[in-house]
């Protein structure tokens, strides 16, 4: 004898993803029972067609589940890639902070050089008001050489600062573009999740 409908319902209550698999399996078992107990060939053929239809629905549901599984695997791979990219971005940002710190040191050095040059210029003006003496000329010559040396140092520092500014600007632009890319990827992922949710809602209906 066949088990009762209640026993079958309890045994086949396995709808884990909310796609109606338990209802389809119940319907398939009921159709099979009716097909076994069918009194006429016409009724048997009708139950046979119902079983085929239910099996097709189960196969479609299984295929959809496999597609969702494959998509989840691809999403996991994508998230792992994003995690690795974030690690690279953090290294780039750390390097940028180091360059900023170095640029600040160079700026302080340039300020000290400028201050020294102003002091030397003031001293040179004071010396020029004194009588022309041999020692004074020697000092002026030494100051002139030192000023020239400081001028070269200042020019080199300014050139290096300008280069660092350009490099820092390029670095900031790259970081901004990377942030935009991450935000776009996040928005795309949210859109795909929203579409999946809508598809699952439609499947339930």
TrEMBL record:
It is found in: Nucleus. Its main location: nucleus. GO terms for cellular component: THO complex part of transcription export complex. One of its GO terms (biological process) is mRNA export from nucleus. Keywords: Coiled coil, Nucleus. Residues 184-205 are annotated as: Disordered. Belongs to the THOC7 family. Component of the THO subcomplex of the TREX complex which is thought to couple mRNA transcription, processing and nuclear export, and which specifically associates with spliced mRNA and not with unspliced pre-mRNA. Required for efficient export of polyadenylated RNA. Plays a key structural role in the oligomerization of the THO-DDX39B complex. This is THOC7 protein. The lineage of its organism: Eukaryota, Metazoa, Chordata, Craniata, Vertebrata. The gene is Thoc7.
